[in-house]
Design brief:
Length: 137
Amino acid sequence: MNQRRFYIFIISISILAYSWLTYNSFFVSNSKEGITICWFKIISGFPCPACGSTSGIIEIFKGNFLHAFQLNPFAYSSLFILIFASIWGVLDLISKKDGFYKFYLSVNTYIKQKRIFIPLILLILSIWIWNIYKSLC
């Protein structure tokens, strides 16, 4: 992905994510079965590894940190990445720098190492199993 497309993608995804969080925070009831946009869950009936992240982020905003973790531990990293990426992306665009793009390329290379990739996959699988277990109970 070239640099221009990368920044367009980051800003677009950030706007969509903030819009989705705002919509879910203010316009969706707090019922257990809210609106889902997870294609995997819609098709299979089972949650994906990221299911519950939106609810978790909303719980973080409310100060319910344990409940957020129980919904999906990825809520914390998702919120951090969303804030971090959107701010750094906008700052790079304003200052006409490419620091975030270079950071992305270096992280992408780092994650491909077996000693990082395998534990990361195991973490994702364990959270996925947790999500499936929660939906069955």
